[in-house]
Predict the structure.
Amino acid sequence: MTLVNDVEAVALSLPHLTADDLLTLGSIDAPEEASGTKLVLNVGTGFGAATLIPTQIGWQSCPSEAGHMSFAHHESSQSEVLSRCGAPRFTIEDALSGSGVQRLYQTLNADEENGSDAIQPEQVFTRAVSDPVAAETVKHFSTWLGQVASDLALVTAAWGGVYLIGGIIEGWRPVAEPTGFRRSFEDNAKMKDRLASIYSGIILRKDAALLGLAFA
């Protein structure tokens, strides 16, 4: 019996996904199967990441603990929001997870007259069309997701694409800001051209992990 990390299993599915299994974020088309290292990011109750690397004997998947890396902000406005979130050492998972979405919404809503009642992450996304604080939460989330995806793509040399999956991604998808995501993803003066050439998309296939297990 072989035990496989869930995000690693999703990574193994990437070469076998079709265009119908993906929602593209941005203008870059999904790459061909053998197009270099691929990166999958799973945003749900936590944050997970795994890479899929082409080798002479086939694809090799590699899980990680990327969610526990420090979250690096790029703008002073982000620094202010993060300081108000109250975490002494802010990790990627603190920002990009179900609890991260809740914390961000409550932080942004703290100045409202009535404060913020307990809210579920999926409610933040569904309220984004009518609730200005929820809309601002989505904007920050899109920016932060693009930033983290960019950093991890550079760390792993994921020139074969960045693929998003997970319960939080599913909630974010209907109100996603692809432009804000890609702007943040490509916001690197030295590596802008390289980042601009990397595909990014959301995995729509519900059984991607099971598909990947068939190739484990």
